[in-house]
Amino acid sequence: MRPRMPGEPATLPAVTTATDTLLDGTHTVLTPEYVEFRFTLAGLYSRFLAWLLDSVIVVVISLAVILGLSLVMAAFPGVASALGIVVYFLVDWGYGITLETLWSGQTVGKRALSLRVIQESGVRIGFYHAALRNLARPVDRLPLLYLVGGVTALVSGSQQRLGDMLAGTIVVRERRLKVPSAINASGEEGLLTDPLFVSRVKRLSTEERELVLTAVLRRDELRMEARLRLFAALGARLQDALAMEKPAHLSDEKWTLLVAAALLPKR
After folding, report:
1. Does this model's pTM top 0.85?
2. What was the pLDDT predicted at 72?
3. Of 46, 129, 214, 253, whose CB neighbour count within 10 A is largest?
4. Crossing angle between the packed helical segments 127-135 and 80-102, to the nearest 10 degrees
């Protein structure tokens, strides 16, 4: 991770990728504060296992729906097979789109394998991204067992199948980051009992919330120069976003920690 180098253009956001091995790689996001955060890309093996588990669930749900429609199928035997195919694809698409939207990029299979779909910019996906990547699955599956999608992921720099390229998403391994003790220790600060401060923090945008929490959770990964630069920029940005002056006795990092503490549920 590094701060912006002299003469480097101020483009937002800058994204680079690097493949370390055939099955794993990293995806690097350069934040508006010119600090790099790295995400570990999910390998094909773990993605296959997650897809296998999700496929079993989709088949079970499809069979349950078809059994529920058995009376209709018995009355119209000529359309039974066609109806079964339609039901399967509707359940398959609906399952992926619904869960990835509600669970911020996860399905049951991805959650079991600690995988998550995120945007290339490093933030969570929404309905639009989940819909695009799942609607492209029939093409990725050609001619069978995701051969097109698998080959595309192997040759792409970010392990992306066609659906991911279309939606601008990647699949990463989820890291279990422990909440820093500094956030828990912030409970004694008077600002956290100030209703005005807390209410303004709660009105921060999703992008601002994710930026604050990501910076706080990964601050120990940063070199000191990059860390100071990041929190100086975040401190100024939060003062503008909250329309509040930072207390003089607080450092920019401590100010950001307080904002993060206000964002987290009370223990």
Report:
1. no
2. 67
3. 129
4. 140
